[in-house]
Structure formats: C-alpha cells, structure tokens
Recover the amino acids of this structure.
C-alpha cells in the first residue's frame, strides 16, 4: 500500500514574498488527491517542497517517520526513491532520447539486464501511447508528448507516491481523459498515493478521493472531494465555475473597485465568462477500467469518511450519502434526508 | 534561511561560502563509486575540442612576443647568452598557465556553465535529484575532473608550442645562435619550474570547473539568467585565477631557490 504523507504547518517564502503559510494536510495512504489553485499560488512550489527540492522555512513533511524538511541529504535521497514525479514541463534529459530517458531510473537504481529494461520501458511507453517515438530527442517532440514521456519515466520504478504537476496542461481533452483513466488504473493496480496539481475542473470533479485548494497564501480547504465540490466558499465556487465574478482576479488579489465594477457589468447583462450552469455538486467518480482490480482506496476512504461524516457540512453529507448504495446506507446507518447541524470550520480542514 | 543577517558584503560572503561548499562536495563526491567514466571522457573530449585550436593560436604569438621582447632586452644589457633561458622560464612559469587559464575559463568554463544552466532551467537537474541521482556526482564531478585534465594537457601544449615559437623567432628572426639558446636552458631552468607550471594548471582547471558549475547550477531565473551566469562565471574565474596565480608564484619563488643562486 502507498505511504501516508503528513504535512504540518508548512510555510514557504522566497525572500520577502510568502508563497503560502501554515499549510496542514494529510495525503491518506493509497488515495488520489487533487490540489487546485489559481495560477501562481504556489502549487508547483508545494510539489517541489514535498520532494525536498525546496526547503520550507517552517513546518514538517513527514513520510514514513522522517521529516523531509530537516533530514540529512543522504536520507532525502533514500526517501526520494519512493517518489515518481511528473514535472510541469516533463523535465526530460535533453541529451538523451526518449528510450534512454525512461530507462534512466532503471539503469541507475536496479541491476536489471538490458532485456528486462527494454521490456519495462516499452511497456510504459505503450501505456502512455508513445510507441514508435523511442529514438526521438525531447527537443523533437510536442509538449504533450514530453509530458507523457515524463509520466512514463516517473512510473518506471513503481513508485509508492506519485506527484503530477498539471498532467493535463498541453494535452487535448481526449488525451486528458485517457490520462485521468491511466492514473486511476494505476492506483487500482499498485495502490500508490497520488497527488495531482491542476486547474482542470474535469479532473478535479471526477478523479480524486480528496480535493484541496490553495489561494491567497493559504490552504483554503482540503478534505474528501464532496466537501469542496459542494462548498459555497466564494473562491471555490468562482474557481469551479470559471467565473470572473468573485475574489480571484487576473492578479492574485482583486481590489474592491474592480469587484464592484465587474458586479455592475454583470448586473447590466454582460457575461462574466462562465456558462450559466453551476458545475458544483458531487458527480460519480471515475472507476478503474473493467477487468482491473477494485480500488482498495475507495473502500478505505469510505470507512474513513463515514466515521467523520457528522463533522462535514450539510451539502457534503448529502452528496456522500447520495453516492452510497442502499445497502451501504443501511450498513453505515445514514439516510439521505437527515440534516445534521455541522460544526464545519471554513478554513483548512484537517480530515 | 529564516533570519538572514544583512551587512555590507554579506551577500558576497554567502556566495563565497556556497562556492567553497560546492568545492568540498565535489572533492568528497569524486571518490564515490561508480565513477562516471563515460561522462568524464565525453566532457574531456568536448573541452579539448573547444580549447585546443584557440590555445595553439594564442600560444604561438605569445611565445613570439616574449622571445622578441626578451631578445631585444637582453641585447641591450649585453646578456644575449641568456635569451633562451629567460624566455623559456617566462613561458613555462607564467605565460603558459595564464594562457591555459584564459582558455579553460573562457572556452571550457563558459561551455560547462551554459550547459548546466540550461539543464537547470529545464528542470533536468531537479528531475535528476528526484530520481535519486546526485547531479554533483553525475554531472559536476566529471566536468571538473575533465577541466583539470585538459588544463594540464593544454599547459603542456602551450609550453611546447610557446618554447618552439620562441626558439623560431629568436634564432631565425633575430639571428640568435641555436647553441646558446639551448645551452642557456640548463643554466637557469630546472625541473621544479615545470612542476609548478603543471600544478598551477591543475588548480586553475579545478577552480574554473567549480566556478562554472556553481554559476550554472544557480542561474537567477529564466534563460536570461543563464546568459548572465555564463558571463559572471568567466569574469569571476579570471579574477580568481589571476589572484591564485599571484599567490602560487609568490610561494614558489620563496620556497624553491632559483637555480645558481
Ligand atoms: N525559485 C523561485 N524563486 C523565487 N520565486 C519563485 C521561485 N519559484 C516560484 N516562485 C514564485 O512562487 C510563486 C508560485 O509559483 P508556482 O510555480 O508554484 O505557481 P503555480 O501555482 O504552480 O502556478 P501555475 O498554475 O501557473 O503553474 C510565483 O509567484 C513565483 O514567482
Ligand atoms: Mg505550476
């Protein structure tokens, strides 16, 4: 089973600029989590901190009992072997062709024969749809192909934690859908802990078990997907629906005057860039391709969520209950119409 | 990193500290197995290919200028018989390490810095670290060692080419006597002169490699940063090398007694 990643009170700044502060969350073992956030809120910085490439000033990142923020270089290299990381631009080695790029971790860390390496590399290349491009250099392929090759390289050592920085950017909607399926299938097969950073609402709605959002130097919330998907937090609502109306502006902060002007435009009938429908709400989660094992994470998560359900907001409770089968509702002893008053705090949930 | 003290020059001190740290890391890591032989050979070959021709082209006129200058000087003070020795000493002890330094820093170091810098901004270095491979072990050590090796070889080449050039100009152009030129060699020159020259070259190669790697691994944001980093690497290396040359020469002249004194 994948490993648990515990982040506590993490703060990162570059010089005087604080990127985010006091981020506290737990990536539950073997589950898929998605982190949303407008461009420039430090999602990539967060991922890089999780693998120890950037050192946060405060807080802890605990994996298998080791605090990555303060451990020795040697220990860090040991822990990193559990990670598979897809960088935002693929980060392939420019001097090696795709085959050698994907074979690199195998050649460095295992004593596999060239034949075995070949088998694994070709298998991964087929998985991401790059058969035939083995001998191409990274400079000779499209951005989306680089991304997929980067993913293949990240997966080649069967990592226990997979971090993906915007797997969808540079990919068309169809390939993005394939990629979402790929990640879910992967989770079903190797039960790895997965964290995906993205702005893609489709991925956020259908892929994860847990969903979080960074905004204005803080973790707005993090918890079971139903919580964020049904939230009426203005930032979340604006982001999910892709509106201009709301607290998120073109630059990070939006001032009162801009907000008022936009509201006035909207009242006068000028569209704010979104479709009229509200995409919030719990939609069915993506399932592994038929024939693959059932995702253990789903069962574990269900138990975990049901044990805290009475602490969740009302809408989230309803969403969760509605997604259960009648037998499950009976087993957990919950009913779709029972509103429980919720003491849900609006900020950074630790769930 | 939280509470950085600030006083004039603190930034420079911090950078120097990090540079030295990298130097120490490289020395430590160069003993770690497996040694990256392929990378080392490739890099050596690469540095040789960018430096040999310019070095040869620079060292011929350099040798000639020294020979001509010393030739007329020694004639003026009536010491023609020492022309050979003086020019050989000047070339081996000073000119050739300096020429080597200029080319290793200017051609080799700038190439190393640009290469590492572009890898850094393409996140290749980060990716390598995340894949559990130390970029210092994998990329920096072979480059620094290659710079050192090539530097020593170049120094030898500059010495030979410079001495031959000096001989040619002195004997053919200034009608010096071949016999006197050669004979005066052994009167003033000695083996340690050659050693110090090669040791200097070795140290210059090390410094050029470390500075280039340091600037390459820490470009200040974006492709423009890589250009600046290369530029700075070359300038910093020049300054350092001339300073180190001064120190080494002083030590050598104090420690090793000149021949015949
Ligand atoms: N090495 C660095 N030095 C200084 N500032 C940095 C560095 N890396 C990132 N930043 C700053 O941190 C902030 C967050 O950057 P980051 O790349 O994490 O954004 P992001 O959320 O991933 O955005 P996007 O969705 O566009 O990828 C930006 O304001 C950026 O200027
Ligand atoms: Mg990013």
């Amino acid at each position: 089973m994948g490993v648990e990643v515990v982040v506590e009170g993490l703060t990162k700044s570059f010089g005087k600029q604080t990127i985010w502060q006091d981020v506290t969350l737990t990536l539950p073992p073997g589950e898929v989590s998605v982190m949303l956030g407008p461009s420039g809120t430090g999602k990539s910085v967060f991922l890089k901190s999780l693998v120890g490439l950037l050192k946060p000033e405060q807080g802890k990142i605990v994996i298998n009992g080791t605090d990555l923020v303060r451990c020795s270089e040697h220990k860090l290299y040991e822990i990193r072997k559990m990670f598979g990381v897809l960088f935002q631009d693929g980060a392939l080695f420019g001097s090696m062709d795709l085959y050698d790029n994907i074979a690199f971790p195998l050649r460095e860390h295992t004593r596999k024969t060239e034949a075995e390496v070949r088998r694994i590399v070709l298998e991964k290349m087929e998985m991401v749809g790059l058969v035939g491009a083995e001998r191409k250099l990274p400079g000779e392929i499209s951005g989306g192909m680089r991304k997929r090759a980067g993913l293949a390289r990240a997966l080649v050592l069967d990592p226990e934690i997979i971090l993906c920085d915007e797997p969808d950017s540079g990919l068309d909607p169809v390939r993005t859908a394939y990629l979402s399926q790929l990640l879910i299938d992967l989770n079903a097969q190797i039960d790895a802990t997965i964290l995906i950073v993205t702005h893609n609402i489709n991925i956020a709605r259908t892929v994860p078990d847990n969903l979080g959002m960074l905004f204005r130097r803080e973790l707005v919330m993090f918890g079971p997907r139903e919580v964020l998907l049904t939230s009426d937090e203005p930032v979340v609502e604006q982001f999910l629906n892709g509106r201009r109306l709301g607290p998120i502006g073109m630059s990070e902060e939006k001032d009162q005057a801009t907000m008022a002007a936009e509201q006035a435009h909207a009242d006068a009938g000028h569209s704010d860039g979104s479709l009229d429908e509200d995409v919030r709400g719990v939609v069915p989660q993506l399932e592994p391709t038929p024939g693959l094992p059932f995702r253990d994470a789903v069962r574990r998560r269900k138990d975990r969520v049901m044990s805290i359900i009475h602490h969740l907001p009302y809408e989230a409770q309803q969403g969760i209950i509605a997604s259960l089968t009648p037998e499950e509702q009976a087993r957990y002893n919950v009913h779709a119409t029972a509103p429980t008053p919720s003491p849900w705090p609006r900020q950074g949930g630790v769930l | 990193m939280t509470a950085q003290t600030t006083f004039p020059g603190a930034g420079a001190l911090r950078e120097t500290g990090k540079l030295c740290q990298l130097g120490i890391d490289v020395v430590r890591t160069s003993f770690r197995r497996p040694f990256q032989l392929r990378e080392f050979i490739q890099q050596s070959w690469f540095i040789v290919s960018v430096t040999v021709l310019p070095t040869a082209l620079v060292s011929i006129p350099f040798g000639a200028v020294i020979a001509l200058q010393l030739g007329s000087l020694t004639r003026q003070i009536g010491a023609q018989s020492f022309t050979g020795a003086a020019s050989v000493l000047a070339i081996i002890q000073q000119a050739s390490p300096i020429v080597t330094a200029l080319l290793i820093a200017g051609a080799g170091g700038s190439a190393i810095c640009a290469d590492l810098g572009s890898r850094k901004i393409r996140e290749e270095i980060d990716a390598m670290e995340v894949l559990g491979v130390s970029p210092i072990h994998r990329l920096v050590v072979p480059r620094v060692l290659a710079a050192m090796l090539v530097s020593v070889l170049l120094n030898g080449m500059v010495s030979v080419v410079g001495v031959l050039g000096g001989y040619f100009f002195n004997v053919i152009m200034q009608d010096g006597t071949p016999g006197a030129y050669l004979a005066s060699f052994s009167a003033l020159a000695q083996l340690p002169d050659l050693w110090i020259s090669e040791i200097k070259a070795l140290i210059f190669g090390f410094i050029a490699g470390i500075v280039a790697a340091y600037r390459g691994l820490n470009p200040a944001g974006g492709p423009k940063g890589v250009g600046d980093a290369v530029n700075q690497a070359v300038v910093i290396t020049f300054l350092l090398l001339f300073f180190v040359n001064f120190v080494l020469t002083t030590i050598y002249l104090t420690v090793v007694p000149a021949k015949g004194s």
